[in-house]
Amino acid sequence: MNSKTSDWFEVSLRYRKISEDGREKSVTEQYVVDSISFSEAEERILKEMEQFIRGDYSVKAIKKAAYKEVFFTNDGEGDKWYKAKLQFIIIDENTGKEKRSNVIYLVQSSSLNAVCKSIDEIMDGSLFDYESMSVQETKILDVFKH
Predict the structure, then answer these.
(1) 9, 21, 56, 92: least surrounded by Cβ within 10 Å?
(2) Radius of gyration of the chain (CA)
(3) Single pTM value for the model
(4) Residue ranges of the alpha helices (H) in 7-111?
């Protein structure tokens, strides 16, 4: 797996799409873009999707993502995106007390079992102890990085 740390934005895009049975229907799909602002996120998603969009379209929502790091599969096998919430356990050197901090990652994978295995591989070299708090499949269809 490789990763990219950045400011990520989740974008909901509504447009008319030709379904597999040949009928045109209105869909709202979620995408993630690497961007520095809301306006750039809108510009980037429209540029990325212009080859797929025919007719009317609208950006329904843009929100800053809760994660700063996205993990991509190297083999292109992952067709789903999962949000993984990990809790890092750190011992404060001054007080000796345990501190816990939550971190959310977006991880590309082919299945729930595969994403859990990938998280363990990613964290294997980490200096911090951690617990997996949750792993959820998202409705994100694709991630566009610079």
Answers:
(1) 21
(2) 18
(3) 0.88
(4) 38-49
Cα separation, 86 vs 131, whole angstroms: 6
3-state secondary structure of 125: coil
- Residue 86's CB is within 10 A of a number of other CB atoms, namely 20
Four-residue CA torsion sign, 109, 127, 4, 103: positive
Query: For 6-50, how does the pLDDT look when each residue is reduced to its tens digit (9 = 90+)?
Result: 999 999 999 988 888 988 888 999 999 999 999 999 999 999 998
* Tokens representing residue 90 in the block: 């750190």
Structure confidence at residue 81 as a pLDDT band (50, 70, 90): very high
Signed CA dihedral, 90, 92, 97, 102: sign only: negative
Pick the CATH number of 1-65 from 3.30.70, 1.20.58, 3.40.50, 3.10.20: 3.10.20
Does residue 116 contact residue 71 with C-beta atoms inside 8 Å? Answer: no
